[in-house]
Fold this sequence. Notes:
Layout: H1 12-45, H2 84-90, H3 93-108, H4 113-124, H5 132-162, H6 173-206, H7 210-237, H8 251-280, H9 285-309, H10 311-319, H11 330-360, H12 367-394, H13 400-418, H14 424-468, H15 479-513, H16 518-550, H17 556-572, H18 574-588, E1 597-600, E2 604-611, E3 615-619, E4 625-629, E5 636-638, E6 644-652, H19 658-674, E7 682-694, E8 699-707, H20 712-730, H21 755-775
Antiparallel strand pairs: 1-2, 1-5, 2-3, 3-4, 6-8, 7-8
Amino acid sequence: MQIRKSKKVSSDSSKADRFLNFLISFLTLAVLVGMGLLLHISFVVAQTPETQNSVVADPMVDAQEMVVQSESIPMEGAPLVFGLSNGLELFSLENIDRSSQSLNAVLKDLGNFPRHVHNALERARPDTSVSWVWQIFALTLFAVTLGFVVELFADKLFARRLLRFYRGMPESRAEKIGFLFSRSLVQVAAIFLHVIVTFGLILVISGNTESVRHAALIFASFYFFFRLLMVFTRNFLAVGNEHHRVVPLDDDVARSFLNAIILCGGVAFFLLAFGRWMSHLSLNANAQRILDLQSGLFLAVSAALICYIFRRPIGGWFSGEYASTERRRVWRRLFSQNWHLGALAYFLVAWLVFAHRLLLGLSYDSLLLLAPIMAIFASVLLYGILLLVIDKWLLPPINIDKLQDAFVEEIVQVEEQAGHSYNPEEVNAEARALAAEKEAARRPYRQLLDHGARLVTLMFGLAVIVEAWGINLFKQDGLFGNLVEVALIVFFGYMAYQAVHITIQRQIEISESDKSGQAKMGRLATLLPILRNFLLVSIVVLSGMVALSEIGVNIGPLFAGAGVVGLAVGFGAQTLIKDIFSGAFFLLDDAFRTGEYIYVTNNVEGTVERISIRSMQLRQSDGLLNTVPFGNLSFVKNSSRDWTMMKLAFRVTYDTDVDRMRELISLLGDKLLEDPELGPKFLEPLQSQGITALEDSAMIVRVKFTTRPGDQYVLRKAVFAGIREIFNREGITFAHREVKVRIDEGAAGGQTFSDSQKKAVGGAVLPVVEEDDQNGSPKA
């Protein structure tokens, strides 16, 4: 098997990136200019008053309908601020009564709606024999059709030049988003040409017929707004480009979602365009309110129905149902199950406020109902840009195959320089593991950036909705302006908190798993949790202080009070301070680390499980957990550092050949060193120390070996088992402990003792002898 070589990477991707950057800059400027021109033509020109010559009076038209009938309301032109004083004033009993009276008048005049529309059309009818309404639709249809042909040609031309860089299956999220952005920009550019051609044809063909021109421009403008909505929705759902879809939706659900938006959006934009046209024609006030109420009601009902029908697919997206590896939290699951209730409540409240202001004759706008749609549009656009920035510039994913090739070349070069042979499959596997490990180290930070992008997008979407309600979030001296600044401070503090936590937690995991640099890693595992807690507390305190300062709280007295409290605590908590400083010096001296077995004051011993700022916890072998303050430590004995020597003693009879016994122990040591499992545990081999003591019935023989802390107990079992096996094979006998008791029968008055009595006397003496033997045993 050959080692895989680096493949020649095509330059299409880099060309696509450069071309995409240029196209984004150029088309963004062009679209902004075009949208400004479109708004100017459709809303400024459409509101130009008709000339007197273009209006032909009809004797059937009531002269009163030439004037918009509306009562003078004291709150005329009041800003749309929902909440606090203005909101309470808007929904006062007096205004509610006015709104009810206006609604009754509208309902009574509902039967006259066709006559009001007919009269408005007759007033604006130009002097021509052809029905001018059909002339409007014919002109609009003709101009839009020719413009659509130009759009198709431009779309194919731009798509063929740009999208050829995105052929094939996308391999990363950045490629998917880049394709969708490029496709959207191509379609927006084609629509922009469509706008120019359509508006140009309308202006040229309509001539001096102002009424026809204005009406055609209004309907064409709303048609193009509808087309932009379709471009956004189609590319967001990636209908027809399933492999580039970023949102976790099934293809059937995405198509159904798109069809629902096309149907509801088309009807809604037509109603809005018709209402704007009638407003331009000075329709009767009650009839105009009927149109506006109808348009607003359709917007609210259609949006609510879409939210309810697609509540489960969208809820699954919110909860991460389609991502099996993602941990779903309780609050997220609850939100995904009930989010549509909040959406339904919003559209209900928004329509009620919209209708209430409309009936009062105040300034009103469909923006309240369109705000969620605008927020979704802007948030998705922002989220896509942020993800593209993360994947392209901030923290791009590593190409595993390319990095694997680099590691393969490096490993092969090292092996060849050392003169070693290598297995290509093993080299590829090792290189693949190294590349995957490097990418895994970057993944938590990329997930943090993605999480931050979602938070920014959420805050931006909420800001769009709040601004639609007339609340100025960026007013420096206002309450909401301060809340925005506090939210930004909390956001950056949260991101810093998570970044520090991820970095130190990863180092702790590395220190716990790395056995090669055990000393360094063990000390890191001890100090890093304390450093992490200190940094996290510092971030929280500083963020809280800055947030309090932004909302107007004077934090100077807080610092002064903290100093006084610190001084009082210093006098009243001397023991606590002693514990903290003692622990700091013990840690600086590297006296112990997490996981080591130590002996401390008052015969307390155990494995260090946890180290805090003032104490540590030791787990004994029987499971008891001791919490020891640092201030109580006078010394520390550490049995887990560097190496340990184990000395083992056993008894043999006096007829044992000592030289032969030493040879056998040496052979046993060589055998244990050759063992694949036990051999690496020895730092120094098993050695015989010879005869270390002589007793009445036995010779005391001692052996020793050196190993790493923690391995001595495993090796002790193996050494004892090996010695017993060799001695049994070679006929060497272990000496049994004997106790000889001499009884002076003369002092006993000639009394004789039975065997059971002699055993009882020996048993009574044995504990004393064993105690003397332990106390008087020689040390090696």
